[in-house]
């Protein structure tokens, strides 16, 4: 068989900010915090930095609608005129993330309620119940007013609905949410009888006799019904999506400019972005480093790859990241010189055609005044400002790669529903951690210099040489069928422990674990053997596992590594099942680092995938355009890197023949096509 | 003087499951989770496993009473007929632990409220206010309906009221509880004046002028009134007991079968089982290992011994334990091969005549689907199933020992009230830990192969050679008097620090610590000297203490060990007071392991108690029948053990003369009488 | 220029307990907990101990007013007569810290509410909303009744209003508090427009259109408005102060005896004592050691010095400390022999003219029964009692120093507002810790045997040779101006990182950090560089910093030490700016111990301040009277200390010429004037 990676030609272009040429550059801009004279200064400095798009009015509801139904657009008219005059386009927000104080007074029921019954009050941001009709009505009104007024403004490039749906509050347990939850459940399950079956209410005598008995999973004496919890998580994501869709549809009545909202793909557990990607005209993402973490550029790459997947492979926008430290982590480590450019261009390398920041100018007051900005408190007399100007120029040099695509032979399955379900109460071990496992496998692929896609469960896998499914606890029969076809057709599949266990309702697949994957993996897990805190097991060949082991019985799978000690001593630990033209690997314990790399090398061989022979922490990614190919080399190390490559280096305009030197901490972009 | 251990003849038999011969074997059975065809399969598999009793309908309220006052018994009729036909008897529950959803809608006041005012909603289990009249009325109605219908069913062997009273919610602070608390207090204290005195309300100006001012100890600014807290804990235990008694009395109107409810003796702080033991016809206990703990078979033995004590020395039922991992601990470690049998037979060795599990068949859905079962997810193709069948056969071989008793020369005082009071707020050190101290002394006795009883405070101690009272913080004058008589009559008493400090109302006994025990111990504690976190003190002879020290002044006691350093350097640390014919030992610091063993050896000599010379972790216990004695040898090690003994080994039927070999990890039971 | 330390003559005497000669000695006395026969005993024992003042009726509201408006003073009349007869004066409380149960029933709205909405119930103490009109009315009524009845009683020496305002509850978020908060804000800001500006409500769209929209900063989705939080903290302190003032003014209608309330200067974050000091006739303070902490006598000294500052340099009263262990810390370590006397006399050395304890006699019941007392549970047969009697005699020998004052050349800036603001949400690092930094600098001064004053921000600094401003995050322009004048006039200023950042509204000073101090320090901080948990940076000269670093650019300052590694490698770490006649030092990283001492030695040289050459942990302080000087030498070590000094040792009456020997663990007081 032959593998065919997805080709650019298969992918329609996303809608793109109207009137913005080249790579988009800019950030959130909150001029309402500053006197008018600063606006003029800002426009001039934006020009110096090469900014071509700013996001405005995100938190301006009360300024635009100071009293119910009374609008004041004067300041925003002035601002858009000024920006247009300065050649800066506008990504205009519907300011619905912070309702005005008057709306809370008139409708206290829009306040969200926690699982324990704590009513959250206004005073910060994003404090609203997405199911409250009063909130939805008021949000639609302001969105309509903004849409009507600015649809035709020449500065308008696109619409930014709301802000970061799903954070910091992802769920509301109030009575209005209960009503909406019941309606959502009727839609999903059809009848109360079906709900009783889906939720397994014969367990612990929880059977419902009337729809009005159904409530959100509020605080209760001990572990609640997991199917109820899981449906509630789906409902929460869907309620936010309904909010988004309502505002988007209002805007579309007036405007053909693209509509989006900013995601936080790898870091927002409460929203299932697979269901959101198709609802935006262009995918936009916010990404912030976990500042204290080691090698956090790998997490950045994972975020970028997942964002590209949510965008269906099409170019996307980096809507927010930071020039330096944020202010909401425990210790807000500043970025080192060079890091800002490497971070920015790493996103571009993985499909971003926009590089934007929170925020243009650092606030003097409020909760985010210690968040970095393009223009820091120390102003233009600062390294950060100089780096921002330099980055603007660099992005200008990369204009031609806009619209080019990233290809991958390897895919990793990402699944919000498995994440949710796996981390509900009363699992076999508190050390089971969905995101940790995905990140561990991703890290190995990154270290092997293998570019990878993310795929949704059940998505067609044809064209990938290798597919990795980490901790896919919830595996619907359809997803399992796709894996089976994929392997039989010659694919290589790698599955980690605690995958394939339950169906859509968190019910264990019948017949022995892993019910959905027994056949494709050629084995049965007779008993889970969670390990003690800190306990380690040795494997044949010297590897070490922790967290988890299993008593597994192969039915066709061959043993690759076995347990040398621990509760499964002498039993298979890692197996490989040849099935049809392909093979399915299974890892029954938690491997990390070199031990995990060692096992994966076997899978790479099966898949015909070749890790690149490149220095550690030198990141190499390609974008493919219709006429050219672009090679990004990001040197995250503190020594110069030498790479075999030829072409034109776009940032410097220099020509490279055969050997490219990328100085320590810097980035090169070669047109090689 | 001579010591006389309690003799079997003194003990009346408990009521026992009707029609179940030999040792009881079985588990919780929840057929409502499965289609009817599985029921037939289950009956056949129960036969194969030797199951003779199953607990049913524990969570079936809403199925039996789908609408208020409308009953549907069809499915339960069918089930009981089927089981009876298969030779399996039924332990039939009153399903009152999970009220139907309709009861919550009609009576939201049955929801319990936490100390902080959080209302707990239905959605899990055991989420009800035991003082709510609406709950009590509805519980009595369903108990009556079940009692009437099944009293005469031939499958009925006994009644299982409710489930695990006291967990996971042990207290409710709602207004209905407040009303009931006031009534309880009137009963206890008689007058408001007496309440004011008992609670010491002159402290912090808390005097009550009206009964309606009295409330449960809800969240307040800082530490509350400890006497109020203590009475509230008593009230909570009594309210649950009142719930139990009401249901039991309803059943007794219709049936003479034994009535019980399942305890969790060593692990449920919220219920004072000394007050419950006399209210059940047979004591039943649930025990689950702390899976990650080292040598957790000692904790199991402690639980079994305390259960036997609660049963007044009579045989009891192990109502729930697990075949493997549970699902509610942080890391649910599976049992190793052999452990299931050792655990089961250790309970039998210490007086259990029933071995039952939660649960017969693993659930596919709900919160407990990862809890092990007799029939696991992998079905009969599993080691666990094979071990379950084997255990059934083994218990069959032990039928003759039913009714035999355990004798002990040593007793440990266990006291829920001291546990409660010692761990209230604002004690001298947060490192004071009631259960830790009891377990530490118990471990020493277990390691010395000394079988021990537990006794309630104030219980007659005649017949015991040695009595240990760990951390008996709350010591009523009557309890102190019993200790005095016991020692004067020749007994040996061992008391640990922070005993004898307060009376029933948590008031310090006057005249210097330990007020209730100064005389029997022959000393006064001038000042408590709690130690810093991690601080250790050396004692003469090389022992090391931590957590606690004291400035104590002997008045008659001799110094056994003194402090070599630390805040009490040069003062007595361990003392011994000869009083009448006996002696009273006092340990003023926390000793563990060999250091504690060393001190206890002195007490053993005083008591004429001889530790057995047996290998570590080989557990030896005897049961005494009217005609024979049964020697249990449980080998918890991984090497074979050889014990001098003669008789018939009941599990194999083999004969042993002089030397019994018990292979690593296995159990032998010898008829030696 | 010349330095002039504040002179005694500048300081008016505080009002002092009427009729109490010499140093005040005594404690809290709660006779209502004991039968009358104990009262007689107590009076006799007080005489033996030299007690001359006791605080009574602190928790007696319900006893004095058993029903609304009905008073029962009989027992208190008897008590005061008895005490007067025994020569013991009375510090009589308004018993408003614990409202009677009947007030809660009649006015449930007096219960405080937490940020999360939890209603705190009565049951402990100090559980009231200071803004509730019902509470204030009832408090005024009982204060008036007590004032009227006892103003003329001969035992009355002073008034003790309430108890420990601000603990354990410092804030209430109820609707009554919201109403009061709005009134307070109108007073502070004048107009809603001014409030919007001060709070920066253009950030996150939080603008107010109506006063009724303003609420306390209750639980919200994420970080709230920091200016709102800061104003709420000010409001909470002011509401408590209003409670105090109302009661004081009621008392003053009837009595000219001094009125006070007990502070907890260094340990109560919720109250800004700078605003309280001027409102009491004599400053009274409660101090409790952090029992487990190493060298906690330094914290004691800091508390005493801050209390003296709050008292404007005048003598003050130690209203509560403990004879031994308290009962509310995790591990309540008892005091070692000698510690009680050293603690007591250390307070006297630093300006206290009263030494009082919580409590006279240990309670038998209630939440504080394990708190130590002058008369412990073991009564007079105890070391503690003997030490109490000895201390009474010692204080008698020191009568002549009453009214003498302490002088210092060094001052440390203490600021509750910086403490509040620095520790609000979303600062650059969670490791920023206001109190830790103050204590770290204080410890260095203590170790250098330099007596120091505390000063409020903005207070005139003339007369001090050296001023230290640790973590003065909130620096108003006026405060900065004082620093500028001080340095230009020849002073030496030491400032630590994260000082001078924001104004009164937590808004960043414009123009680059540290906005308020750029000029005086001669530098700009371009970027904060918080360090990772546990990360350390090396400085030139071998010092090591952690927690924090900065990218700073000198504008006039010279580099004293530079970073040798870490994110600021090669940049200045410690700088010194010569300005006018003085110098301003800046420490941009967290230094401790010897590293901090090393830097400070440079500042001492600039300031002309000379650390004394004395053994470590030998504390030497002087009090200055009009005719004599008193040298306190407190030997906290376990070896004898020899000090060059001459004079009369007041405790022994002995004469010392040239060399004073202070035995290990003891104190000497020399009249040297």
Automatic annotation (TrEMBL), chains A, B, C:
<dbReference type="Pfam" id="PF02449">
    <property type="entry name" value="Glyco_hydro_42"/>
</dbReference>
<dbReference type="Pfam" id="PF08532">
    <property type="entry name" value="Glyco_hydro_42M"/>
</dbReference>
<keyword id="KW-0378">Hydrolase</keyword>
<dbReference type="InterPro" id="IPR013739">
    <property type="entry name" value="Beta_galactosidase_C"/>
</dbReference>
<dbReference type="InterPro" id="IPR029062">
    <property type="entry name" value="Class_I_gatase-like"/>
</dbReference>
<dbReference type="InterPro" id="IPR013529">
    <property type="entry name" value="Glyco_hydro_42_N"/>
</dbReference>
<protein>
    <recommendedName>
        <fullName>Beta-galactosidase</fullName>
        <ecNumber>3.2.1.23</ecNumber>
    </recommendedName>
</protein>
<dbReference type="GO" id="GO:0004565">
    <property type="term" value="F:beta-galactosidase activity"/>
</dbReference>
<dbReference type="InterPro" id="IPR013780">
    <property type="entry name" value="Glyco_hydro_b"/>
</dbReference>
<comment type="similarity">
    <text>Belongs to the glycosyl hydrolase 42 family.</text>
</comment>
<dbReference type="InterPro" id="IPR017853">
    <property type="entry name" value="GH"/>
</dbReference>
<dbReference type="InterPro" id="IPR013738">
    <property type="entry name" value="Beta_galactosidase_Trimer"/>
</dbReference>
<dbReference type="Pfam" id="PF08533">
    <property type="entry name" value="Glyco_hydro_42C"/>
</dbReference>
<feature type="domain" description="Beta-galactosidase C-terminal">
    <location>
        <begin position="617"/>
        <end position="671"/>
    </location>
</feature>
<dbReference type="InterPro" id="IPR003476">
    <property type="entry name" value="Glyco_hydro_42"/>
</dbReference>
<feature type="domain" description="Beta-galactosidase trimerisation">
    <location>
        <begin position="408"/>
        <end position="609"/>
    </location>
</feature>
<keyword id="KW-0326">Glycosidase</keyword>
<feature type="domain" description="Glycoside hydrolase family 42 N-terminal">
    <location>
        <begin position="28"/>
        <end position="396"/>
    </location>
</feature>
């Amino acid at each position: 068989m032959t593998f065919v990676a997805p080709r650019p030609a298969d992918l329609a272009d996303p809608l793109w900010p109207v009137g913005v040429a080249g790579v988009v550059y800019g950030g959130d801009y909150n001029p309402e915090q500053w006197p008018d004279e600063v606006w003029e200064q800002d426009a001039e400095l934006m020009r110096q930095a090469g900014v071509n798009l700013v996001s405005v009015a995100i938190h301006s509801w009360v300024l635009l609608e100071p009293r119910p139904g009374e609008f004041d657009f004067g300041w925003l008219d002035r601002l858009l005129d000024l920006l247009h005059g300065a050649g800066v386009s506008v990504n205009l927000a519907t300011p619905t993330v912070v309702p005005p104080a008057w709306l809370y007074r008139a409708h206290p029921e829009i306040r969200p309620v926690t699982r324990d019954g704590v009513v959250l009050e206004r005073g910060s941001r994003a404090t609203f119940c997405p199911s409250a009709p009063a909130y939805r009505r008021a949000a639609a009104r302001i969105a309509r007013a903004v849409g009507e007024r600015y649809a035709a403004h020449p500065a308008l490039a696109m619409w930014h609905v709301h802000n970061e749906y799903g954070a910091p509050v992802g769920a509301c347990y109030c009575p209005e949410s209960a009503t909406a939850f019941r309606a959502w459940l009727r839609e999903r399950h059809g009848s109360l009888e079906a709900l009783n079956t889906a939720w397994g209410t014969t367990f612990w005598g929880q059977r419902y006799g009337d729809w009005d008995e159904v409530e959100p999973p509020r605080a209760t004496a001990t572990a609640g019904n997991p199917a109820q919890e899981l449906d509630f998580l789906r409902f929460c994501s869907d309620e936010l999506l309904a909010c988004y869709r309502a505002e988007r549809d209002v805007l579309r009545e007036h405007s053909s400019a693209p509509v989006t909202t900013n995601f936080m793909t790898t870091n927002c557990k409460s929203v299932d972005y697979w269901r959101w990607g198709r609802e935006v005209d262009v995918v936009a993402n916010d990404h912030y480093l976990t500042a204290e973490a080691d090698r956090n550029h790998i997490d950045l790459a994972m975020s970028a790859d997942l964002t590209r997947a949510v965008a269906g492979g099409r170019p996307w926008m980096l809507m927010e990241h930071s020039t330096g430290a944020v202010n909401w982590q425990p210790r807000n480590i500043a970025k080192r010189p060079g890091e800002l450019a490497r971070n920015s261009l790493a996103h571009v390398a993985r499909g971003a055609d926009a590089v934007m920041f929170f925020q243009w100018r650092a606030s003097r007051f409020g909760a985010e005044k210690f968040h970095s900005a393009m223009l820091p408190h120390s102003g233009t007399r600062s390294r950060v400002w100089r780096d921002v100007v330099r980055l603007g120029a660099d992005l200008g040099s990369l204009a031609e790669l806009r619209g080019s695509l990233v290809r991958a032979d390897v895919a990793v399955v990402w699944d919000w529903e498995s994440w949710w379900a796996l981390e509900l109460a009363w699992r076999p071990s508190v050390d089971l951690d969905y995101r940790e496992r995905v990140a561990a496998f991703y890290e190995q692929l990154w270290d092997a210099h293998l570019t990878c896609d993310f795929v949704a469960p059940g998505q067609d896998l044809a064209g990938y040489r290798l597919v990795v499914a980490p901790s896919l606890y919830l595996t619907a029969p359809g997803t399992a069928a796709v894996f089976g076809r994929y392997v039989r057709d010659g694919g290589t599949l790698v599955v980690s422990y605690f995958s394939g266990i339950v169906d859509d309702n968190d019910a264990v697949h019948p017949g022995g674990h892993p019910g959905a994957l027994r056949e494709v993996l050629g084995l049965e897990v007779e008993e889970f053997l969670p390990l003690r805190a800190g306990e380690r097991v040795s494997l044949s060949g010297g590897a070490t596992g922790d967290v988890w082991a299993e008593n597994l019985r192969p039915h066709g799978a061959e043993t690759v590594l076995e347990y040398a000690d621990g509760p499964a001593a002498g039993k298979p630990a890692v197996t490989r099942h040849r099935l049809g033209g392909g093979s399915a690997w299974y890892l029954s314990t938690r491997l990390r680092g070199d031990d995990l790399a060692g096992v994966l090398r076997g899978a790479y061989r099966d898949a015909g995938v070749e890790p690149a022979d490149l220095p550690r922490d030198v990141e190499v990614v390609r974008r493919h355009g219709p006429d050219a190919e672009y090679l990004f080399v990001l040197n995250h190390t503190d020594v110069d890197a030498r790479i075999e490559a030829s072409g034109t280096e776009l940032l410097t305009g220099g020509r490279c023949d055969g050997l490219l030197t990328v100085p320590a901490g810097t980035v090169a972009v070669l047109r090689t096509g």
